[in-house]
């Protein structure tokens, strides 16, 4: 007699732990990381510091008790000490949290001894970077906010993150007070990178802590760590980040990621040579059929990079001679947070594959096989469950474009056992993607739905990352057109194969996925139910009210202040087609969402009420663009399953269990 597989609960989905901030020691022997809860109900999240052998030969060693938030570990040059951020109140006070919950810079030996508190600044420390060969640490410190209930005047004073240099002293001599870098003026520090010799810092700043939705600007500065003198190098591209220094045996280069052409399209790697009089940064990824994700600086060599390529992620190294990237390894699924030792031979990443959620892995990229070694086992509680089988999909759109995606079948079933009720769950972005990885998340609930007998289609339509810049640019000014055809063509394929029941189709998504669900029900009545999570309904209103206004205007083609309509954005806004909607819609949205404000959901809710369409409208108090609270995440999982269960029914595998 067979034993029925365990039925997963929403609590089991959200009550897990995930890794944060893995970092390889300079000598390549150790990896430090933080572990934190996937969700939380309290105002003060907690996380725990760990150290483990980079080759996986010994188990992880816990350095803190998890009563406070301790994160962003960074190794000292000797590979024996760690700097990290913590809201612990006093040195040695286990379980005590600072009253104002601000993080300060701490230091500890890799064996857990010698803990020291290095700062006590009022606003708290938000980032730090130890400098090679010195007792200096570059720190980013937040201004305290003393504005209280005073009126907020646009362009007026507001707290910023500022850079300073800190002499950390020694075990017998306390650290000095941080010395501010005043040459950056009132600009908000976003990211810093130290030249490997420790003498110069690259600093990326913005005019204010908030993205300017009309005229966003990212600027680059160089800071001399000896004198504190600042050199301004001017504006960078849209959303510039991930700066990495490298040397070509003659001069220093600084590479970074930015959107190309901006504010929309795909990311590119740009390279500049400070002080060379270079007319414009060189695009090192022009024409590639994959998309850069991150750069990782290497102290004694050229940078490493992560690239999205279809359903996989690749590790590359920059060739200093040709200034092109060479692939070192390919991993199915997700790789992120790439870090390396001084030589670049040993790396660590966070990875999620077909069978496991995010864990910390390491690899020797000097090994031609470059196998990933798993270093952590953070979610052993999931090992008792069975999971829906995945199939990698590859198909052609109606215009011949090559597309990919994933199919997840119900627990214990194969595609040949269909037809199943099918839920299509669209990813966010549009510059995002699905990877060949374990998908169990309140905002992307493929395995959750598979446990209820649904097949789940995870499409990667045009406009996403993983197929190069030209692929990403195809939706700019043409939202909803080709990408909807791509999704629809994939559903047709699954119906033709007998996997999907054409009479029991559902669609949903979060963020841009929610937008596409709203678009879908305004263009077809083939779906019996839809979930619109934090989706855009009116692009013109979003350009006027969302924090990424200029980007939204670029994607949709216009804003409402450009004269009397109709405007280009009207033709690509789901709300324009509300009169055609008849599919029951579950609308879910965070009350405090600044990316896609709640007004977008209210607009759809009122339109559906006006036309008498069956709908349910749910607002999560205090939530932003993603749901962080445990109770909100549980509610979203259960509500999503109940909505599809009400309108699609459930598959035979769910009922048999």
Automatic annotation (TrEMBL):
One of its GO terms (molecular function) is serine-type endopeptidase activity. SUPFAM superfamilies: alpha/beta-Hydrolases, DPP6 N-terminal domain-like. Residues 446-650 form the Peptidase S9 prolyl oligopeptidase catalytic domain. Keywords: Aminopeptidase, Hydrolase, Protease, Serine protease. It comes from the Bacteria. GO terms for biological process: proteolysis. PANTHER family: DIPEPTIDYL PEPTIDASE FAMILY MEMBER 6, SERINE PEPTIDASE S9 FAMILY MEMBER. Transmembrane segments: none annotated. It comes from Nocardiopsis metallicus. This is Dipeptidyl aminopeptidase/acylaminoacyl peptidase.
């Amino acid at each position: 007699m067979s034993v029925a597989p365990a039925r997963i609960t929403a609590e089991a989905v959200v009550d897990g732990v995930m890794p944060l901030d893995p970092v390889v020691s300079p000598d390549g022997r150790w990896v430090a990381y933080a572990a934190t809860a996937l969700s939380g109900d309290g105002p003060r999240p907690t996380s725990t510091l760990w150290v483990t052998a980079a080759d996986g030969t010994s188990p992880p060693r816990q350095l803190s008790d998890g009563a406070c938030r301790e994160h962003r570990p960074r190794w000292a040059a000797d590979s024996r000490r760690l700097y990290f951020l913590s809201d612990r109140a006093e040195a040695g006070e286990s379980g005590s949290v600072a009253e104002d919950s601000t993080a300060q810079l701490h230091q500890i030996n890799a064996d857990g001894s010698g803990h020291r508190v290095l700062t006590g600044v009022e606003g708290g420390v938000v980032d730090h970077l130890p400098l090679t060969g010195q007792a200096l640490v570059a720190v980013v410190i937040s201004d305290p906010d003393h504005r209280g209930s005073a009126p907020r005047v646009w362009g007026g004073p507001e707290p910023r993150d500022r850079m300073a240099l800190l002499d950390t002293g020694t075990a017998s001599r306390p650290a000095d007070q941080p010395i501010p870098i005043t040459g950056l003026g009132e600009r908000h520090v976003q990211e810093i990178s130290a030249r490997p010799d420790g003498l110069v810092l690259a600093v990326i700043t913005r005019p204010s802590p908030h993205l300017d939705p009309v005229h966003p600007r990212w600027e680059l500065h160089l800071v001399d760590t000896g004198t504190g003198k600042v050199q301004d190098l001017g504006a960078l591209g849209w959303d510039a980040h991930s700066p990495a220094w490298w040397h070509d045996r003659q001069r220093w280069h600084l590479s970074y990621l930015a959107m190309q052409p901006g504010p929309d399209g795909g990311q590119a790697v740009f390279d500049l040579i400070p002080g060379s009089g270079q007319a414009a940064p060189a695009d090192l990824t022009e024409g590639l059929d994959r998309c850069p994700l991150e750069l990782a600086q290497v102290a004694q060599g050229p940078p490493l990079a992560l690239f999205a390529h279809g359903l996989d992620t690749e590790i590359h190294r920059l060739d200093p001679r040709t200034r092109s990237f060479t692939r070192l390894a390919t991993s199915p699924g997700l790789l992120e947070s790439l870090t390396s030792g001084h030589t670049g031979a040993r790396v660590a990443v966070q990875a999620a594959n077909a069978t496991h959620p995010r864990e910390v892995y390491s690899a020797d990229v000097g090994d031609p096989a470059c196998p990933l070694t798993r270093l952590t086992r953070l979610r052993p509680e999931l090992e008792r469950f069975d999971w829906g089988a995945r199939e990698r999909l590859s198909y052609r759109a109606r215009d011949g474009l090559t597309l990919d995606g994933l199919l997840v079948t119900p627990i214990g079933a194969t595609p040949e056992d269909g037809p199943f009720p099918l839920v299509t769950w669209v990813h966010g972005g549009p510059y995002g993607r699905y990877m060949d990885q374990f998908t169990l998340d309140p905002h992307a609930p493929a395995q959750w739905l598979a446990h209820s007998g649904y097949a789940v289609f995870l499409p990667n339509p045009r406009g996403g990352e993983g197929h190069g810049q030209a692929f990403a640019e195809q939706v700019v000014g043409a939202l909803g057109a080709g990408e909807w055809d791509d999704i629809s063509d994939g559903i047709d394929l699954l119906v033709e194969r007998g996997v999907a029941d054409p009479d029991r189709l559902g669609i949903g998504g979060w963020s841009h996925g929610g937008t596409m669900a709203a678009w879908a029900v305004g263009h077809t009545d083939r779906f019996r139910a839809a979930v619109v999570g934090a989706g855009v309904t009116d692009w013109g209103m979003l350009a006027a009210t969302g924090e990424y206004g200029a980007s939204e205007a670029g994607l949709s083609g216009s804003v409402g202040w450009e004269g009397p309509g109709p405007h280009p954005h009207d033709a690509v806004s789901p709300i324009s087609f509300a009169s055609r909607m008849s599919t029951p819609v579950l609308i879910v949205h965070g009350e405090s969402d600044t990316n896609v404000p709640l007004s977008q959901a209210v607009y759809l809710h009122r339109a559906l009420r006006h036309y008498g369409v069956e709908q349910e409208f749910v607002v999560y108090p205090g939530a932003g663009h993603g749901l962080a609270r445990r109770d909100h995440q549980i509610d979203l999982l259960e509500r999503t399953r109940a909505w599809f269960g009400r309108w699609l029914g459930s598959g035979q595998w769910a009922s048999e269990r």
